[in-house]
Amino acid sequence: MAAPAGALLWGISTRIPSVESAHKPTRGAQNVASSSPHEPYVIEVNEQNFAAEVVEASDRVPVIIDFWATWCGPCKTLGPMLEKLAEQYGGAFKLCKVDVDQNQQLAGYFQVQSIPMVMAIYKRAPVNEFTGALPRQEVERWIESVFEAAGLPATPKAAEQAPTDPAAAEAWYRQKLGQNAEDSAARLGLARILMTRGEAEDAEALLHAIPGAAPEYGAALATLALKELVVEVGQAGGDAAVRERHSANPEDVDAAYLAALADGTAGRYSVALEVLLSQIQTGKAPVRERAKKSAQILFQAAGRGDAEIERLRRKLATLLY
To answer: How far apart are CA 92 and CA 66, in angstroms?
Structure first.
């Protein structure tokens, strides 16, 4: 499928809600994506925030759009892979995820015929695209080609990764802070470890020390708001462990629940809430109560105003009453 012309992208930005309205928060303050250069690496995009999060953001860095749907099998493989790469590249590009079922207007504008479909945009113009779930090596080569096609001098190196073992990770973060006491990524990582261990006071002090201009600020606020769920994920082995468990056995209710919490604590509220509401609807009493409690925490963190969150809020009310 041929990439849409740059004129089409500009037309989309003018026909959907205005940039000014897109700057207004569509989530709670805990996870509002900033239009400043300090942005989350991964964000859910809809017709309300598209102009700010895609069009304007592409003036600063390449933006990769992942068109997906909850029912799409290959999307479940490709999506997490892209998210992990976005984190590893540390902000060299921004990953914007579009649920085609919830954003049919955007899917239509971009002529999405099959999913997953991935498109790269830079300086408000399409750069490259592909469809289908490619192997990781091919996706990495494709990302390299995006930087080359965009005329960027070099692809930034992937960000450093902390060890997966909690004790080793704690030592690694403390070493980072010893080298640079203002390292916000290390503050956030260490805070999550301490919070998981029940050392809430020390964890909160680290989180409150992260400045508003830091890329980790939104994650810090989300961690504060969702600390109960962060602890639960941490006690189950952490994000990577619960996701691996869920990938190995997608039918495991407990694994699906923990993976949903991992999504929620990462700010992917609607993805997490879809799973939790499904468990409220179909699960046995203990499963329902657990999912209900966590869903209510996520709704509180998400705030009001986002159309998808409000739809899920109404769905919860229907299930409960």
So the answer is: 16
Domain 234-320 has CATH 3.90.1150.10: no
49 has pLDDT over 50: yes
Comparing CA positions, the residue from 59, 133, 120 lying closest to residue 86 is 120
According to CATH, where is 3.40.30.10 located in the chain? Answer: 6-149
CA–CA separation, 186 and 103 (whole Å): 36
For the record, the structure tokens of 264 come out as: 């929620």
- Specify the pTM: 0.46
Which of 16, 57, 64, 75 does the annotation list as catalytic? 75
- Could you give the angle at the alpha carbon of 258 between the alpha carbons of 293 and 315, nearest 5°? 45
CA torsion through residues 133, 138, 140, 144, sign: negative
The residue from 72, 193, 230, 309 that is catalytic is 72
For residue 116, cis peptide bond before it (omega within 30 degrees of 0): yes
DSSP 3-state of 64: strand
Tell me, what DSSP letter sits at residue 121?
Answer: E
Q: Quick: pLDDT tens for 275-309.
A: 999 999 998 899 999 999 999 888 877 766 677 88
Task: For CATH 1.25.40.10, list the domain ranges present in the chain.
Answer: 234-320
> Residue 8 has what pLDDT?
46
Confidence of residue 115 (pLDDT cuts 50, 70, 90): very high
Task: Name residue, tokens 């962060």.
Answer: 230
Sign of CA dihedral 221, 90, 42, 271: negative
Instruction: Indicate if the pLDDT at residue 175 is higher than 90.
Output: yes
Q: CA-CA distance, 216 to 57, in Å (whole number)?
A: 17
| pLDDT above 70: percentage of residues in the chain | 81
96 counts as catalytic: no
* Spatial contact of 29 and 130, defined as CB atoms under 8 Å apart: no
What architecture (CATH level 2) is domain 6-149?
Answer: 3-Layer(aba) Sandwich (3.40)
